[in-house]
Design brief:
Elements (H helix, E strand, L loop, with lengths): L12 H25 L3 H11 L8 H20 L4
Helix pairs in contact: 1-3
């Protein structure tokens, strides 16, 4: 009797979630390392201000940091466009 092997669906929703979760963890690591290495009084004040600021009101430099991560998400989503 022949063994029937079911082909694994490429780019499944579960794989997408895992890849995006991995990216989110990478982002958290990056930010946490930065915070731990740059925890000064001035930075603490700046971060407190950023916490209270909507994205649309950030400086262009601050937005660029978020845009870098958004580009990484888009790159991943392009691989899963047929979901």
């Amino acid at each position: 009797m022949k063994k029937i092997i079911t082909a694994k669906k490429k780019n499944s929703k579960k794989e997408l979630i895992e890849e995006l979760s991995d990216l989110e963890h990478e982002q958290w690591i990056s930010m946490t390392k930065y915070l731990l290495n740059n925890n000064t009084k001035d930075n603490h004040k700046r971060w407190e201000k950023q916490i209270k600021t909507d994205y649309k009101d950030l400086t262009e430099k601050e937005k660029d940091s978020d845009r870098e991560w958004a580009e990484k998400v888009i790159k991943i989503l392009k691989k899963y466009k047929k979901l």
